[in-house]
Amino acid sequence: MTRLTVPKTYKLYIGGAFPRSESGRSYEVVSPSGAFLANAALASRKDARDAVVAARAAVGRWSAATGYNRGQVLYRIAELLDGRRAQFVDELSRSEGISTAAAGAQVDAAVDVWVWYAGWADKYVQVAGNANAVSGPYFNISVPEPTGVVAIVAPQDAGGLLGLVSVVAPALVAGNTVVVVANERAPLSAITLAEVLATSDVPGGVVNVLTGSPAELAPWLASHADVNALDLAGAERLEWVDLQIAAAETLMRVLPPVTGIPGPSLERILAFTETKTVWHTKSLL
Asked: How many whole angstroms separate alpha carbon 106 and alpha carbon 108?
């Protein structure tokens, strides 16, 4: 007897749960050859707003964790991602039309990126912070702190998993929370990664994954007054200048589009931090 395949419907990931789009919309995800792979939720403006609300609610808990604790959580994500390697390889090879070897290399690179950023979680403050020279009986110390909620357009041209990891991980290191719009044409690995996050130690709302059209969702995120930073890494084909203008209305920090997938860098961590300077009187005893 021949078994029928069970078409899978990939949902959104918002606030630690997997809801359907509030609009009820979905779209077909197909392989480069046009073969049907799955259905994915087509996120709406309301879904984007719900994701921002969830991300805002999670800022306090995530940013209050120690750098060491955040690093351990990121290491755990890498462990779980590596444990589901076969599933990621299968999804990437089918949705991106690449060989099993190339898909495996992408999964391995994504794991390495998680580990690289995890290692910085309890170290970037020492590198970016400093004790400032002042004239007087004071200590003057500058330290980086998280900026808050970061909205991200993931790379869209290739690397559905590696591209997503490369933009989400650096925002998490410093204690920010994330709303990310996944690769529109190859979103399967993004939601599978969300399943990894849901079974790890990441608090609900710290990462929120939207699937669908970046052209539809990015303008709402760019103009949202409760978003603190905007990473347009994958917005090269969008009207990204208009998105920057919209973000400027709320004094939102903006990272411009990049070509390809951004490599691991300390600069991407610090891009989502604010510098806080503290004065303290020296003891006169």
From this structure: 5
| Partners of residue 105 on adjacent β-strands | none
Assigned token pair, 256: 């411009």
- Token output for 127: 């590198």
| pLDDT mean over 47-53 | 98
Contact of 58 with 177, CB cutoff 8 Å? yes
Is pLDDT at 84 greater than 60 in this prediction? yes
Distance of alpha carbon 19 from alpha carbon 17, whole angstroms? 6
DSSP run (H or E) holding 255 = strand 253-255
Q: Residues 229-256, buried b or exposed e (16+ Cβ, 10 A)?
A: bbbbbbbbebebeebbebbeeeebbbbe
What mean pLDDT comes out for the span 252-263? 91
Q: Which residue has the tokens 């590696």?
A: 162
Six-digit token pair at 153? 């357009």
How far, in Å, CA of 46 to CA of 145, rounded? 29
Q: Pick the residue with more confidence: 278 or 72?
A: 72
Domains of the chain: 10-121+146-277 (3.40.605.10)
CA 15 to chain CA centroid, nearest Å? 14
| Cα torsion angle, 169, 171, 172, 177, sign | negative
The tens digit of pLDDT for each residue in 210-249 reads 999 999 999 999 999 999 999 999 999 999 999 999 999 9
Highest mean pLDDT, choosing among 119-133, 220-234, 265-279? 220-234
pTM to 2 decimal places: 0.92
C-beta separation of 168 from 207 below 8 A = yes
